[in-house]
Amino acid sequence: MRAVICRELGPPSLLRVEEQPDPVPARAGVVVSVEAAGVNFVDGLFVAGQYQIKPALPFTPGSEIAGASLPWARASPASPSGNG
């Protein structure tokens, strides 16, 4: 998968699109195929290191997404459809 990665704090020009391993869902989680992601003013502050919360590097800025959940790879009682 492709992801925007912040490896050092600074201006948005330091962000890079990189290939990353496909995510694996946690026991009670899902994987979402992201079609669109919102990036807001606060995300720019995160990248610049100017927000009160400083995430560990590297990180992917943004927390708003739209997409579809991918099929479950294994049965799980936490599956929203109940069929794993």
Tell me briefly what this model is.
The chain contains one helix and four strands. The chain has one helix at 41-48; strands spanning 2-5, 16-19, 32-38, 64-69. The protein has one domain: Medium-chain alcohol dehydrogenases, catalytic domain (Quinone Oxidoreductase, Chain A, domain 1), CATH 3.90.180.
Set out the fold topology.
Layout (H helix, E strand, L loop, with lengths): L1 E4 L10 E4 L12 E7 L2 H8 L15 E6 L15
Antiparallel strand pairs: 1-2, 3-4
Describe this structure as you would to a colleague.
The strands form two sheets. Strands 1-2 form a two-stranded antiparallel ribbon. The two termini are 23 Å apart. The longest helix has 8 residues. It has a single domain, classed as Quinone Oxidoreductase, Chain A, domain 1, CATH 3.90.180. The model has no long low-confidence stretch (mean pLDDT 86). It contains one helix and four strands. By secondary structure, it is mainly β.
Comma- or semicolon-separated keywords:
4 strands; Quinone Oxidoreductase, Chain A, domain 1; two-stranded antiparallel ribbon; mainly beta; 1 helix; 84 residues; single chain
